[in-house]
Design brief:
This protein has 285 residues and is α/β, with parallel strands linked by helices. Helices cover 42% and strands 19% of the residues.
Length: 285
């Protein structure tokens, strides 16, 4: 049984950066609390590891002292002001791509464009971007959402960083039917594209694919969706324990990819588990 790792998989730059930042904050905390504004990443197991090490998710009330870490999704400006008012030390882990989206949204609004944000309205990244333009923007998720809009004048678009580029292009083309001018900002993360391209390239050459990532992670579920275009036997798992030995019988090549919130140690656990099952199947026939 051959195990093939996708050319690009796992932690993106933004997630790795904020996790490293959290541990640096913990080293300098001097026993004061270190909290994150919401889950640092969309990975239950990594969140549990962070919590066990002393990095907690802030509840409804923030601590009176300590360090608050802004996650890669970013936050609205009002959240920064609240943290400053409380006197907390702020470590900004907002992904550089998200920072760029926030800046472009403000620029578009100042230039007189109607800002249209393409993505999931409930996603924290989108919520943060909306805060930078005082929630004066249109959020669309599908071509159908766009076609339901009234006729618009000058439109400027921002995409959620994890959005599929083809989907973004289709929505932009639909916007051109609804607006006299459309200014397109390219804000999709390269890592997301690279992971999707890598799994697409691998999926035609393997018998089975495991995508490692949280079931509530948009980019992990998208990876599985892309893989199924060529490999119908694609399974999204959160941990190595979910691998069923009966799924591996007769399988010659297994592909592995992982979402942007999946740490290297979880990928290694899956590879180890596959080798253990392979040995067991060889012994037991």
């Amino acid at each position: 049984m051959e195990i093939v790792l996708a050319e690009s998989l796992g932690f993106c730059m933004g997630v790795k950066r904020v996790v490293d930042m959290a541990y640096r904050a913990l080293d300098k905390a001097n026993s004061l609390p270190v909290v994150t504004l919401g889950p640092l990443i969309h990975n239950t197991q990594e969140i549990a590891r962070l919590s066990a090490d002393g990095i907690a998710i802030a509840g409804e009330t923030l601590p009176e002292k300590g360090t608050a870490i802004i996650r890669a999704h970013g936050v609205a400006p009002q959240a920064y002001e609240e943290l400053k008012a409380r006197g907390l030390k702020i470590m900004d882990g907002t992904c550089p791509y998200v920072h760029y989206s926030q800046r472009k949204a403000v620029e578009l609004q100042r230039e007189g464009y109607r800002v249209v944000v393409v993505g999931d309205k409930g996603h924290p990244e989108i919520t943060g971007i909306l805060g930078f333009v005082n929630n004066d923007a249109i959020v669309v998720k599908t071509v159908e959402d766009v076609l339901a809009l009234p006729q618009l004048d000058r439109v400027g678009t921002i995409a959620q960083t994890t959005l599929n580029p083809k989907k973004y292009q289709a929505i932009v083309e639909a916007l051109r039917q609804r607006a006299s001018e459309v200014k397109v900002c390219e804000t999709i993360c390269d890592a997301t594209e690279e992971n999707q391209s890598a799994i697409r390239e691998m999926s035609g050459d393997v018998d089975l694919i495991y995508v490692i990532g949280g079931r509530h992670s948009a980019n992990s579920t998208k990876l599985a969706e892309v893989a199924r275009e060529k490999c119908s036997r694609t399974i999204l798992i959160e941990t190595a324990d979910e691998i069923a030995p009966e799924d591996l019988r007769g399988v010659a090549r297994i592909g592995i990819s992982a979402g942007a919130s999946t740490p290297d140690w979880m990928i290694r656990n899956v590879v180890q588990r596959l080798h253990e099952i392979e040995k067991s199947l060889a012994i037991n026939g």
